[in-house]
Every structure is written in structure tokens, then in C-alpha cells.
Amino acid sequence: MEFAFTPEQELIRKTAREFAEEVVAPRVAEMEKTRQPPLDLFKALGERGFLGITVPTEHGGLGLGYVARTIAIEEISRISPALGYMLQVFALGMAPILDYGSEEQKRKFLPDLVTGDAFATVTVTEATGGTDPRGITSTAEHKGDHWVLNGRKVFITGSSLCKWQTITAISGQDDRGRTEISAFLVSPDMEGCRPGREEHKMGLWGTQLGELVMENCIVPEENLLLARGKGLRVALTAISETGRSGVAAVGLGVIQRALEESAKFANERVVGGSPIGQYQGIQFKIADMALALDAARLLCYRACWLKDQGERCDVEMAKGKLFATEAAMVAARHCAEIHGGYGWLEEYVTQQLYRDAAILIPSAGTSESMRIVIGRSALAG
Ligand SMILES: Cc1cc2nc3c(=O)[nH]c(=O)nc-3n(C[C@H](O)[C@H](O)[C@H](O)COP(=O)(O)OP(=O)(O)OC[C@H]3O[C@@H](n4cnc5c(N)ncnc54)[C@H](O)[C@@H]3O)c2cc1C
Q1: Domain check: are 289 and 192 in the same one?
Q2: Which residues of 78-114 are buried (b: 16+ CB within 10 A; e: fewer)?
Q3: Least packed by Cβ within 10 Å: which of 106, 160, 283, 341?
């Protein structure tokens, strides 16, 4: 077994940490106050190469893979879970093109997405189809050299920011009479496509979430991904491998920060004549955070390493996502509790970590969904 990072991965950690501390940290208060997406920081992610970490060099990326991506998201999320979250989403948006796009589609769409001149996401969820992606009702009708899409997607991160969105829609029935789902690259700039309602979340302020509405949206044939009827494969590979590893990496950043803030406060805060870090009740909480951080990292890095080797990794990704996001929620709560009443004041990052961590749980699939993936695999032996 090899537990060392490569020199490139170490360099990504150093670069991401510097970017987070020097460029992102001074902007967090403004993001929390305005709740607006910091577009210039999104662009900076591209300029510094972070958007292209998993993109092969022939398409303008760094070609460093998923372990390196996790490290970058983790470091940025340590300072701003919201920015780390958007970094993960933009790579998620590129994944269907990288994994299943034709050479022509790669050449057409990737260059702008790697530099941050445009952004992408994956747009699957509907009011009737979240955990169950087959429950969607959006339709795609084939008409000559194009498709006509109708429907309403909900809970889409970057719905109004992302120029390219991999959308799933029902395109007919397959040979066995089952609903056939296809995936298309659709843009809110296309005729008949527009952002819908904006949602207001309790945290991850600086990310954007909303609906995407398609009303007789005309999509050219060349924007079909992989093949007719292969849409679930396209979307679910992206969500289960790129989406889950990305959300898990945000969780790692939250645990790391919670641990740092807890240790600092526990060493400084004197109650009853001693720093509270001298009390076992506090030490146990901090010990649990340190343990959770190690365990979550090992699960997440292993899953990403498998992805980088081209091995099957869906179950390992589900384990990493489940463990890291649940552990982030617990670590954020304990961190706030260690701070006593201060933990819930706006000027302390503790309450922000708690709000941000909570939203990671349903993102890219709920904890129940992860347990279903893990449980089915365990039952199959
Ligand atoms: C911040 C945020 C960002 C998001 N970004 C995107 C995005 O960019 N693109 C996108 O397509 N979607 C996105 N989503 C949607 C997200 O993927 C869904 O919210 C998630 O999959 C759950 O779907 P749902 O909300 O419809 O819940 P439902 O599917 O209605 O589930 C409700 C509850 O029932 C449970 N449940 C459902 N089925 C089962 C079962 N078989 N066994 C046990 N329990 C079950 C669920 O775990 C959950 O607790 C985002 C969500 C959030 C919160």
C-alpha cells in the first residue's frame, strides 16, 4: 500500500491553500452578507487551473485526476465551503462530456469550461424525480435534425450561471417498454430555455440554486450525449463519481476547519480556572473530530484513487460521501458547542460551518441513497 501523495498532489494542496487563505478568505464576509455568487472568484478558479484538474492536458486541463481534485476542493472548502462547492459543481458539469462526449463535443465545449469563460452543471432533479432519477417527466421529442425539450428541473446548482447543462429527459420507450431517458447539453441561452425560480438556502451562501425551465426548447442533434436512451448512464456516472466525491471533499474541508477552530478555542477559553481543552468532555469531542477527519480522508482518497486507476468506484464513492458529509455535520455541531454561546453568533465561523454542512447531506444524493448503494453491494457479496 502507498499512502504518500505525489509531488503534483502536494503542489495542488499548497497552491489551493495559498489561494484560499490569500484570495478567498478576505471575501467570505461579503459572500455571507450578500449571499451573491462571487463571479470573479469562479473565474479565478479557472485562471489558476483548478477547474481543469481532472481534464486531460490535450483538452487544456492539468490531467491530475480525482485525488488531486479532492485535495483542491478540501483546501478551498476549509476557508469557504460555498466556493469549494461551486468548484465541485463546475467539474461535475464537465464530467459527462469528458466521460461520454464525442471528440467533437470535447473540442467544442471543454476549452471555455476549463478556463472559466463558461461554466457547466448536471441538471437531473425534478419535483417528481430526485432520489429516483427515473421519476422525471421532462420530455425530448425527436424532430428531424433536432430535439424539442419540455419540462422543469428543480434544485439545480448554477441554474442561471451555467451555460452548459447536461439535462435528462424522456425520449420514448426502450425495447422492453421501459422509459427511455436521453441526455443533452442544453443552455439557458437557447430559445425556449430559461432559469426559473431562485431558491434561498439556509447556508452555502455564495452558491446559486434554482430551476431551469424548458418550453419547446430546440436542441441540435449534435448536443445529444453518448446515444439515445443512454442518458441515465451519462448523468448517473457523473453524479455518483464526480458529484459525490466533490461534495465529500467539501465535507473534508468542513471537518478540518471545525477541528482547527475547536482546538484553538479550547486552548484559549478559560472556564473554572482551566482552558476548556483540559477537560475530558471537550477532549473527547476534539478526538472524535480528528478521528473522523482521518477516516473520511482515507475513504475519499481511496475512492478517488480507484477512479484515477479507471476502476469501478461507485460503492466506494458512496461510502466516502456518506461518511464525510455525516461526519462534517457532527464535527460542525460539536465545534459550535465547544464555543458555548459564542458558537451561534454571526461573527464566529462555527454557525456558518453548521449551516453549510447540513446542506451537503442531500447534495448529489441523500444519506439514504448512499446506504442503498452500499447495502445492495454488501448484499450481493
Ligand atoms: C444544495 C443542493 C444542490 C443540488 N444541486 C443539484 C444539481 O445541481 N443538479 C441536480 O440534478 N440536483 C441537485 N440537487 C438535488 C438533489 O440531488 C436532491 O435533492 C436529492 O437527490 C434528493 O431528492 P429529493 O430532494 O427530491 O428528495 P426525495 O427523493 O423526495 O426524498 C425524500 C426523502 O425520502 C428518502 N428516500 C427516497 N427514496 C428512498 C428509498 N428508496 N429508501 C429510503 N429512503 C428514501 C430520501 O433519502 C429523503 O430523505 C441539489 C440539492 C441540494 C440540496
Answers
A1: no
A2: bbbbbbbbbbbbbbbbbbbbbebbeeebbebbbbbbb
A3: 341
